[in-house]
C-alpha cells in the first residue's frame, strides 16, 4: 500500500512540474518579437498590417512658429497629413542657418519629401542642392525664390503660394474705392491722401510687392498721395504697435490712412490707435492689411479695420503637403488636385479682397464656418 501511495505522489509531482513549465513557455511567446537581432525586413513584415508603415515621412520647416499666418498654414498641413503622412515639423526661429541644419537632419532621418517655408527666399538654391543630393522631392511654400522656382537647378522642386503683385493691387483697389467713397477721410481737405506704410520683412518678395503695387494702384486711380512714414514692422504685431505709437506722436492727425503688408502688424496698429482715442466718439482711422486672419476679420466686423486681402492659408498648407505625398509616392505631383503649375513650376493660390460685405468668404477659407 505504501508503495502504491508513493507511486501516486511521484506521478502527481511530475505532472505538476510539466504543466508549470508549459505555462511559463506559453507566457513568454509574445516577447520573442523583441529580439534585437531581428532583421529590418522581418520587422517590416511584422508591421504589415499597421497603416503607419505605408505613410511617407515628410519633413517640414516653418520660418517661425509664432507668425500669425504661418500658424494657420501649419495647422492646415497637420490636418492634410492626418492618416496620409508622418510629419517631421520644425521651427526655424527666423534663422536660415538653423533651417539649413534642420534640413540636413531630416534628410539623414530618411524623410521622403521636404516642404520648406524659407527664412530667406534667397536660400532656395542651397536647400534645393541638399534635396537634389539626396534625390528627395522639394516643395517651397509661401516664400518664393525671387528669380523663380523654374530657375533652380533641380527637376523635383515646386512652389505653392501666391502671386505677390496681386496682393498689392487688390489692397490698392480696396483703399482707392474706400477713399473715394469717404471724402471726410481727407481731414485737411488738401485732396491728398497722407499715409503711413508698415512693411514686412526686408527682401521678402511679398513685402516688396505689397509696398510697391498698393501705392501704384492708388495713384493709377487718380488719387494724389503723400508718404509720411514707411518702416519695416517685420510682420509683427508688437513692432506694428511700437511704430504706430511713434508715428502718432510725431505726425498726429496728419495721418489719414495706414497701409500694412500683413494683418499681424495691423493688429498692433489698431492697439496703438485705440490707446490714442481712435475708434470711439467718432474718431476713426482707416487701416488695411493682408492675410484675412480671424483676428482681423473680427476687427472688420466691428467697423474698426477697413479691410484686408485673403491670403488662403488652408489651401497653401493643404496643397503643399498633398504635393509632397504625391511626389514621395512617385505620382504626378498634382495628382488629385484641382490646381495647375504655371511656367515657373508654381501653384498659385489666388488672393481675394475682404471687407465687411464678404467676411463669410474669408471665414470659410479659415474653416470658421
Automatic annotation (TrEMBL):
It comes from the Bacteria. Keywords: Calcium, Metal-binding, Periplasm, Signal, Sugar transport, Transport. Residues 58-331 form the Periplasmic binding protein domain. Residues 1-21 form the signal peptide. The keyword Transport applies. Residues 41-55 have a biased composition (Basic and acidic residues). GO terms for molecular function: carbohydrate binding; metal ion binding. One of its GO terms (cellular component) is outer membrane-bounded periplasmic space. It holds the Pfam family Peripla_BP_4. InterPro entries: Bact_Solute-Bind_Prot2, MglB-like_PBP1, Peripla_BP_I, SBP_2_dom. Residues 24-55 are annotated as: Disordered. It is found in: Cell envelope. The ABC transporter complex is composed of one ATP-binding protein (MglA), two transmembrane proteins (MglC) and a solute-binding protein (MglB). This is D-galactose/methyl-galactoside binding periplasmic protein MglB. The gene is mglB.
Amino acid at each position: 500500500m505504501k508503495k502504491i501511495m508513493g507511486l501516486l505522489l511521484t506521478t502527481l509531482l511530475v505532472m505538476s512540474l510539466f504543466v508549470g513549465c508549459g505555462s511559463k513557455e506559453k507566457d513568454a511567446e509574445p516577447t520573442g518579437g523583441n529580439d534585437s537581432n531581428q532583421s529590418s525586413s522581418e520587422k517590416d513584415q511584422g508591421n504589415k498590417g499597421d497603416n503607419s508603415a505605408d505613410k511617407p515621412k515628410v519633413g517640414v520647416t516653418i520660418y517661425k512658429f509664432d507668425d500669425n499666418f504661418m500658424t494657420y498654414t501649419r495647422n492646415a498641413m497637420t490636418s492634410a497629413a492626418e492618416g496620409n503622412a508622418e510629419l517631421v515639423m520644425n521651427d526655424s526661429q527666423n534663422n536660415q542657418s538653423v533651417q539649413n541644419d534642420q534640413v540636413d537632419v531630416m534628410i539623414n532621418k530618411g524623410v521622403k519629401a521636404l516642404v520648406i517655408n524659407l527664412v530667406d527666399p534667397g536660400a532656395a538654391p542651397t536647400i534645393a542642392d541638399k534635396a537634389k543630393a539626396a534625390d528627395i522631392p522639394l516643395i517651397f511654400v509661401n516664400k518664393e525664390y525671387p528669380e523663380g522656382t523654374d530657375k533652380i537647378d533641380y527637376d523635383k522642386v515646386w512652389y505653392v503660394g501666391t502671386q505677390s503683385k496681386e496682393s498689392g493691387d487688390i489692397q490698392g483697389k480696396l483703399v482707392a474705392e474706400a477713399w473715394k467713397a469717404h471724402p471726410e477721410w481727407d481731414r485737411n481737405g488738401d485732396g491728398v491722401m497722407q499715409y503711413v506704410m508698415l512693411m514686412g520683412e526686408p527682401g521678402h518678395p511679398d513685402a516688396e510687392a505689397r509696398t510697391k503695387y498698393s501705392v501704384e494702384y492708388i495713384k493709377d486711380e487718380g488719387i494724389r498721395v503723400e508718404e509720411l512714414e514707411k518702416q519695416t514692422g517685420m510682420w509683427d504685431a508688437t513692432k506694428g504697435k511700437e511704430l504706430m505709437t511713434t508715428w502718432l506722436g510725431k505726425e498726429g492727425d496728419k495721418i489719414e490712412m495706414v497701409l500694412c503688408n500683413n494683418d499681424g502688424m495691423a493688429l498692433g496698429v489698431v492697439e496703438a490707435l485705440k490707446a490714442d482715442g481712435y475708434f470711439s466718439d467718432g474718431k476713426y482711422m482707416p487701416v488695411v492689411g493682408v492675410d484675412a486672419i480671424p483676428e482681423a476679420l473680427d476687427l472688420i466686423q466691428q467697423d474698426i479695420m477697413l479691410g484686408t486681402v485673403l491670403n488662403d492659408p488652408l489651401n497653401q498648407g493643404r496643397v503643399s503637403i498633398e504635393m509632397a505625398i504625391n511626389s514621395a509616392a512617385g505620382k504626378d505631383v498634382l495628382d488629385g488636385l484641382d490646381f495647375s503649375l504655371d511656367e515657373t513650376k508654381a501653384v498659385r493660390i489666388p488672393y481675394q479682397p475682404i471687407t465687411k460685405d464678404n467676411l463669410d468668404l474669408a471665414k470659410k477659407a479659415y474653416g470658421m464656418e
